[in-house]
Amino acid sequence: MTSSSLSAANGKPDIVTLERVTKRFPGIVANNSVDLSIRAGEVHVLLGENGAGKSTLIGMLSGLQQPSEGRILVDGVPTAIASPRHALALGIGTVFQHMMLVPTLTVAENLLVGGPWWQRPKAEELEARVAEISRTLGIGVNLHAKVSELSLGEQQQVEILRALLRNSRLLILDESTSMLTPKGIDDLGALMRRLVEQGLAIVFITHKLKEAAGFGDRISVLKLGRKVGEITPERLRALSEDEIIAQIVELMFGKKESDPEEQARVARAFSAETTPLLQVRDLAVPATATAPGLASISFDIRPGELLGIAGIDGNGQKQLAEALAGQLETSGGSVRLAGENLDGLGVGSRREKGLRYLTDDRLGEGTVGTFPVSINFFLKQIGTSPFWRKGVEQRQEIDRRAGELVREYDVRTPSIKTPIGRLSGGNIQKILIARELAEGVKAVIFNKPTYGLDLANTLATRQRVRDVAASGMAVLLISTDLEELLSMCDRIAVMSGGALVGTVENSGDARTKVGRLMIGLAA
Amino acid sequence: MTGLFDEVFLAALLFGAVTAAVPLLLAGLGEQMSEKAGVLNIGIEGMMILGAYLGFLGAYYSGSLWLGFLAGALGGMAVAAVMALLCVRLGLNQIVIGIALTLGLEGLTALLHHFQFSRSYPRLPAADKTAIPLLADIPVLGPALFQHHLVVYFAVALVFVMIYIYRRTQLGLNLQAAGDKPAALDVAGIDVIRTRTIAVLTTGALAGLGGAYLANVGAGIFIPFITNGAGFLGIVLAMLARGRPLWVLFGALLFGVCLSLTTAMQVAGINMPTDIIQMLPFLAVMIMLVLFGRKASLPAALGMPYERGAR
């Protein structure tokens, strides 16, 4: 029995059906015999880890790629979706993970891009239609704003609007929540609900379990290119959120668990007499037009202690990390590591003294995407022995050590010669961690270490951070994920407007206290 | 030093400036369209030289300047078609192909010219001028600016056509998207390759026309390497103008004045080595780059071939 006849039995027709779709790339099978039925009036969640094959599936539905085997049916008719134009004509609109708007154009111009080149853009008609859609769906966009000035959430709304303007019957949202604030995620969930009520089909791709359980009518789980399970609407309705999550985890990892992100933290006591390993006093950085400064930041971290920095993104966390690492010039204050004054030292010297910084900008400042994995391990040691001698690269030594690190840190890469930019975020993060934990480390600053990682890599990274602290290092963990901080830190400091507004011992009612500090109340 | 500022001298200087500016203007406007769409068209010098050669041949054998211009524009487009095939469709390196086309065509036209005319350099009759009523009677400015060949007025009008295309038309939007974020254009259902090809072919036609004007009107003769970097100056103009056609016009006029000074100073009997005077336009380029070029924001995808689905 094919899936199309299956769905006919349920009353709702398939808009798009995938039958045993396989997509091969040189060296990997991205999708392996995937069946999927996408119906009007349903939010169909595609859930899977990084590399599960979600994006490839979307590529085929939106006409960017063609299946190697199997077929795609549109309204029950086998159809080769040849190009993005063809996909749009079939009523398949996609909001890609990476924004597909021209930053130098206005919102209106972006919505007009794509008309036949010999025509005048129909600006008046556009305005009327946007007004109509905005009214019924409650999304408001300023048509005359330049896209580069919009927040990511606003840009996403523009993309959804664009798909609706083109009369899409199927809307595909690829990892659409990864850039959104919690409020933005809730808004998107509500918007999806209104859209499916109007009869649209939505494919919602995510690797976050809570979103899948919260927003989905039907959940398909992908793992290593295969579809490993599907939870039907009937089942979803019958289960509580916790049961759904447990079921998904079972599908994804083959074992039953409650929310795997919840892990009991062993409370540790630190004697007040212990000499702090990292001492920061009155650190100050002047504000710029685009970034907040730092106002007299002071804290101590004792050996083995994990201090968390909580706060809403953009309150000076990155500036703090960069000032400590020596990347940002300070206007006052001092940093001492194991009693030694680091003031005035540059990035390289601080690193040599044992102060390490793991950036949140993995691809931008953390790695050179086109360099092989092996060289990226030693980017911060270029020119130093034993990897370079008299300015000459010691390929054998680099490869040998890189090979060891790949095994030790469980980096999944085709080879140490692979350009690092081709790896998934989780694997790039492992390489960065390995690099920063190299010989001589005393204190580590982790800036949003699990941002954008899938569940397995998030858990592995968190364990790595815990291990670093347990081995007697001082750890500063900057994160916007409060759950993460609560599950890991000994103390949590809250940052707001470039200042530390309070520090809380992580015990008992820490959650409430931190929460109050974050929204501007005294703990 | 007599007569440097008298009326006749000034009129001649400005007239020469306009004549010298027109090929730069056409090349600059053409290059601007390619760059807007994300193609760095280094081959424009080659398009100009072939345009100059074919333009000259067309006019020489048919006796009609207009057929010459048509031949020149088609010649430029033919080179552009090769460039579009190699760089836009097949995604080869735009700089390498551009340089190869330029060097190859400079050599080829010199060789063909040698076979055809040996060491003789036949001249075309002076081009017809069209005076604009009333304006042409203004002292100094009249003869300097408003008594030119029709192509000159066409080139200036083209500035405003380009402004209209970029600001007001669907093609303008699509071109800018092709240069700034080609993937966005692709998923909006427009063929990036086709959009860029349209831009490159337009560049070729304009560059070829510019070359033909240079030979047929500016010089009245074809000599090998006659373009002498005019295409490259067009690239500079397009880079400096950052997508604004009016700036290409101003820049072209400025360079035109510099080029015109070369002859004008000799006419005025100012004793200065010609080599130094001939350096003027290039000195002007460098000064302009220092003044305006430092924060030039070029299209994000300039010079990068588009491949669907590539990360």
From TrEMBL, chain A:
<dbReference type="GO" id="GO:0016887">
    <property type="term" value="F:ATP hydrolysis activity"/>
</dbReference>
<dbReference type="InterPro" id="IPR003593">
    <property type="entry name" value="AAA+_ATPase"/>
</dbReference>
<dbReference type="GO" id="GO:0005524">
    <property type="term" value="F:ATP binding"/>
</dbReference>
<dbReference type="InterPro" id="IPR017871">
    <property type="entry name" value="ABC_transporter-like_CS"/>
</dbReference>
<dbReference type="InterPro" id="IPR003439">
    <property type="entry name" value="ABC_transporter-like_ATP-bd"/>
</dbReference>
<feature type="domain" description="ABC transporter">
    <location>
        <begin position="16"/>
        <end position="249"/>
    </location>
</feature>
<dbReference type="InterPro" id="IPR050107">
    <property type="entry name" value="ABC_carbohydrate_import_ATPase"/>
</dbReference>
<feature type="domain" description="ABC transporter">
    <location>
        <begin position="278"/>
        <end position="522"/>
    </location>
</feature>
<comment type="similarity">
    <text>Belongs to the ABC transporter superfamily.</text>
</comment>
<keyword id="KW-0067">ATP-binding</keyword>
<keyword id="KW-0547">Nucleotide-binding</keyword>
<dbReference type="Pfam" id="PF00005">
    <property type="entry name" value="ABC_tran"/>
</dbReference>
<dbReference type="InterPro" id="IPR027417">
    <property type="entry name" value="P-loop_NTPase"/>
</dbReference>
<protein>
    <submittedName>
        <fullName>ABC transporter ATP-binding protein</fullName>
    </submittedName>
</protein>
UniProtKB/TrEMBL annotation, chain B:
<dbReference type="GO" id="GO:0005886">
    <property type="term" value="C:plasma membrane"/>
</dbReference>
<feature type="transmembrane region" description="Helical">
    <location>
        <begin position="221"/>
        <end position="240"/>
    </location>
</feature>
<dbReference type="Pfam" id="PF02653">
    <property type="entry name" value="BPD_transp_2"/>
</dbReference>
<feature type="transmembrane region" description="Helical">
    <location>
        <begin position="95"/>
        <end position="115"/>
    </location>
</feature>
<feature type="transmembrane region" description="Helical">
    <location>
        <begin position="12"/>
        <end position="30"/>
    </location>
</feature>
<feature type="transmembrane region" description="Helical">
    <location>
        <begin position="198"/>
        <end position="215"/>
    </location>
</feature>
<feature type="transmembrane region" description="Helical">
    <location>
        <begin position="145"/>
        <end position="166"/>
    </location>
</feature>
<keyword id="KW-0472">Membrane</keyword>
<keyword id="KW-1003">Cell membrane</keyword>
<keyword id="KW-0812">Transmembrane</keyword>
<feature type="transmembrane region" description="Helical">
    <location>
        <begin position="247"/>
        <end position="270"/>
    </location>
</feature>
<protein>
    <submittedName>
        <fullName>ABC transporter permease</fullName>
    </submittedName>
</protein>
<dbReference type="GO" id="GO:0022857">
    <property type="term" value="F:transmembrane transporter activity"/>
</dbReference>
<feature type="transmembrane region" description="Helical">
    <location>
        <begin position="67"/>
        <end position="88"/>
    </location>
</feature>
<feature type="transmembrane region" description="Helical">
    <location>
        <begin position="42"/>
        <end position="61"/>
    </location>
</feature>
<feature type="transmembrane region" description="Helical">
    <location>
        <begin position="276"/>
        <end position="293"/>
    </location>
</feature>
<dbReference type="InterPro" id="IPR001851">
    <property type="entry name" value="ABC_transp_permease"/>
</dbReference>
<keyword id="KW-1133">Transmembrane helix</keyword>
